[in-house]
Amino acid sequence: MTIETPRGTTPWIPTLEEVAALAGVSSSTASRVINGSPRVTEQTVARVNEAIAKIGYVPNRAGRNLARRRTQTVAMMIPERTADFFADPYFAEVIQGAAMHASSTEYSLTLLIESEQDPHKTHQFLRRGNVDGALILSHHSASSSYGELARTLPIVFGVHPPGAVGDQIHVVDVDNVAVGALGTRHLVERGRQHIATITGPLDTSAGRERMQGWRDTVLAAGLEPGGCEEGDYTPTGGAQAMGRLLDAEAPFDAVFIASAQMASGAVAVLKDRGVRIPADVAVATADNNVFSTSSSPQLTTVDLHTAEKGATMMAAVVRLIDGAQLGTEMLVPIDLIERASTAL
Amino acid sequence: MTIETPRGTTPWIPTLEEVAALAGVSSSTASRVINGSPRVTEQTVARVNEAIAKIGYVPNRAGRNLARRRTQTVAMMIPERTADFFADPYFAEVIQGAAMHASSTEYSLTLLIESEQDPHKTHQFLRRGNVDGALILSHHSASSSYGELARTLPIVFGVHPPGAVGDQIHVVDVDNVAVGALGTRHLVERGRQHIATITGPLDTSAGRERMQGWRDTVLAAGLEPGGCEEGDYTPTGGAQAMGRLLDAEAPFDAVFIASAQMASGAVAVLKDRGVRIPADVAVATADNNVFSTSSSPQLTTVDLHTAEKGATMMAAVVRLIDGAQLGTEMLVPIDLIERASTAL
DNA sequence: CTGAAAGCGCTTACAG
DNA sequence: CTGAAAGCGCTTACAG
């Protein structure tokens, strides 16, 4: 048992003024050194930095933010159905990338849950200078109301907001048509003739576009499109869609599944029904995460570089905050990763 | 194309002073109303609230924080290996619970990635008043160095820090021995005689304790402990451990797997080898998430109430910030959820 | 119950 | 290149 040090005893926290005193300069000058102003002598810089190191000074954010009229904070908007959101490794990976990039900047990433019964409250919080910018990922939150907000606050979307597309809107995403096409083309190249698909939700542009990529590619190869069933990005939804695909009369020797989570459910159904992968059915999917690497066989997939997407979103919002002009669309590259599920 | 409204034109943000002017009071009084001071007339309260609503006033955090010498911010510490961290749905769920609870308070949750090459920097950031408290989840970050930090900053752990256990340390977790025992007892009650286990990493107390719960329960039932293989909480690790279990000579008719992620890998191996679940081997695991619900059959599991754990951690750190005295150990309840993998 | 005043810890024109 | 002064938007003793 150690003697209790009551936490009430506020610990000693050095201030700028103390740094300045120790370095023998004014706090104005100390501040300039800290902020990298060019108009300071090398000598002064050295003395101030010494003082900072000596007492372990760290700038107080509240003071700095108040003076700068900035918050150095970017909000990651989370829809109120947080459980669904965090359960999807895709979102977790975007957050990871964004947090990682943030840690290399002066900005910090705050998780902000939107109130669904009072969306106005959330908007007001954002609009009233409590954050410098926001990142919006989920379909639900990408509601049109953010369109106006984007006029006064730097906002970067990870999905295409459904409604208006003004030139103040900035979206970071993969080319979803290309995602569907890349996965499907690989199946074509493997000589498959009857290529089915399990799509994402068709009320989202990403869902529709990956499906379009699949269809375009199949048609371009001179083949008939195989079965097409809609899923919801969950393993269960993928399993059900695969069930419908198998129950339909049309036979197929390959399937492009629009997400790895759906693929994991679908693969389980295939195996339960005695369908061999890839001998009977080759499987290609999208997302390079635990769901594509931990099934047996491992799944060929379109790597969406999801963490990079998060980092790019963060970088973009920081540039917007700094006043840069950015294009509406920023594309994240994709890659095909070949695994056993489409082996020859 | 709409005409560009340059974002440089700073939008109009109302201040306390303006609220006060509109309500015909001083900003002191307006502030008191906002902070719920009892020493204000009902009339005044009404007038100020009207003014607030009218112009949509939201307090500026920087100003408030500077005056209060608080930050209203709690940091969720993330180890630098962010990818592994976010890939685990367990951590994502804790974060979700914490963020959810935070949104019901005045605190915001910030994701803070620790610098591994310069841990001092992270500590200094925390110690220098940039956050009011911190939440620490991962094993790596629960290094002893946080012990001292906890003396000056309210910190709540989600795992037992390996080293010292002073009375300033606060841990929110399930009873891990009970987790192992609850899952295993269910297998015993199902009449299984040869119960094996796949453990978590044995260099963590949670890994060792769940194993102990398994062993205690098996022995208490008058049975011999079955095979015991160590995993790493990943599907691949679970698959490998199951491979070793099957390759060993000892037959088993049940297995307790210490996490659902490992179970998903292990179950795939069982099925690939033609082992029927639950007919040949009953499977019980821990974590009630997509990994226990999306395999076929669905898995009986110990629900760890992981989101609740995150919420409890957040609630605890807020109480510490408010000066409360808390015990070292706070337990999150657990529950058994029966599913097909242990059906009779 | 209410207001004037000081102060929280910074930054940044403004002089020099 | 450097410093004194004002100000960022709040809160809170201190008087009254």
UniProtKB/TrEMBL annotation, chains A, B:
Residues 14-68 form the HTH lacI-type domain. SMART domains: HTH_LACI. InterPro entries: HTH_LacI (IPR000843), LacI/GalR-like_sensor (IPR046335), Lambda_DNA-bd_dom_sf (IPR010982), Peripla_BP_I (IPR028082). Keywords: DNA-binding, Transcription, Transcription regulation. It comes from the Bacteria. PANTHER family: HTH-TYPE TRANSCRIPTIONAL REGULATOR GALS, LACI-RELATED TRANSCRIPTIONAL REPRESSOR. This is LacI family transcriptional regulator. It comes from Microbacterium suwonense.
